[in-house]
Amino acid sequence: MKKSNGLKVVIASAAHRAHYVEWFKAALRSEGIYGEVIAFEYRDTAPTLSMADRGVVVPAYNSPEYRNEVVSWVRRESPDLFISVNDYELQVLAGGLAEELREGGCTVAALDADAQNIVLDKHQMAARLRDRGLPTPATWLGSETDMAKAANSDGRFIVKHRFGSGSDGVRTATDETLQAMVMESAKAARDAGGKPTTLGEDAVIIQTLLPGAEFGVDGVFSLDGTGGLNGALARRKDRMRGGDTDVATTVAANGFTQVLVELGDLLKPVGPIDVDFKEDTEGSPQVIDINPRFGGGYPFCHLAGADVPAYIVRELAGLADVRSLLDYEVGVTTARRDEFSVLRASASERPARASEEIQGHA
């Protein structure tokens, strides 16, 4: 059972994702759990800093100071849960930082290094999924255009960044345009750490273009790191905007759960992960991407009745398992919208910096 001073939930790289801050705060209230939600961000103008119970400005995940400041803060504050919603910060966590934070009893929603490499490198991911017999489209490196064209009689392809986030570098191509699309996509490609890459054409991948509907599916896994699947939530992506789902309709998740069970065994996720599927010509869903975090599509299921934050805080608090919190209404169509938030009332009021908090409690 949780210690008497309440639960502390940290949402890192919170940025503009205010809904997660609001929903975790609401979850603590609805479940009768004393605690606070703390937002971490490197930009002091991020709206989530003022919306959280506490906003803490930390160095950017790729700065030299990031690791030490986060470790010092976590050791002093002893949070119960550390969640990041940034793909590249998850890479830093998987590189040993998560294990360091866990030493003090904090649950960190991050994969280990091997599993993180699988989901980060889309070429390796396709190979590992095929090895386990899981459905995924045929995949080649950008330098293998001739091989791709010889193997794909349909002559239609999708090109995207090998280490990309969201829809980075996505291009559609035919036999005639494939080489040009690979070169164009590679110009903006980045490496595994989010920096400009030297891999050239091999910084992108080529896949068979799947013609069917696309789905986003959340697998909700146990926080103990065993990879046990507690529930699944799914929606059909009806329209995209800027690489994110703009309009989606909730659907039953039973057609995706067996793949999620297999992914749990392969990756041993902690908490929620987001898996993208696309249907092939026969209507069979194929795995096209895996994000080991709350995905951008979860809100569509939340607004249809699911409450993963409440499910998570109950698990953290050692309360009884309530699977009904993962239920939602099928057939609900929701559209994404923009909102505005007041950051602070005057220039003298600003979020505390992690280093200042540490000094203030020394």
Characteristics:
globular, 12 helices, 6-stranded antiparallel beta sheet, alpha/beta, single chain, 362 residues, 6-stranded parallel beta sheet, Dna Ligase, domain 1, 3 domains, 16 strands, Rossmann fold, D-amino Acid Aminotransferase, Chain A, domain 1
Assembly type of the chains comes to single chain
Shape: globular
Helix content: 25-40%
Our measurement of the CA-to-CA distance between the termini, rounded to an integer number of angstroms, reads 29 Å
Q: Tell me the structural class.
A: alpha/beta
- What ranges have pLDDT less than 50 throughout 5 or more consecutive residues? none
**N-to-C SSE string, H for helix and E for strand:** EHEHEHEHEHHEHEEHEEEEHEEHHEEH
What's the number of helices? 12
Number of domains: 3
Largest sheet: 6 strands, parallel
Q: What is this entry, summarized?
A:
With 362 residues, the protein is of the alpha/beta class. The protein has twelve helices and 16 strands.
Describe the protein.
With 362 residues, the chain is of the alpha/beta class. It folds into three domains: 7-111 and 340-360, Rossmann fold; 138-208, Dna Ligase, domain 1, CATH 3.30.1490; 214-335, ATP-grasp fold, B domain (D-amino Acid Aminotransferase, Chain A, domain 1), CATH 3.30.470.20. Helices cover 31% and strands 25% of the residues. The protein contains twelve helices and 16 strands. The protein has helices spanning 18-30, 47-51, 66-77, 87-102, 113-120, 122-131, 145-151, 178-186, 257-267, 298-302, 308-317, 354-360, and strands at 7-12, 35-41, 54-57, 81-84, 107-108, 139-141, 156-161, 171-174, 204-208, 214-221, 229-241, 244-251, 272-279, 285-291, 333-335, 352-353. A six-stranded parallel beta sheet has the order 5-4-1-2-3-16. The protein has a six-stranded antiparallel beta sheet with strand order 14-13-10-11-12-15. Strands 6-9-7-8 form a four-stranded antiparallel beta sheet, sandwiched between helices. The radius of gyration is 21 Å and the shape is globular. The two termini are 29 Å apart.
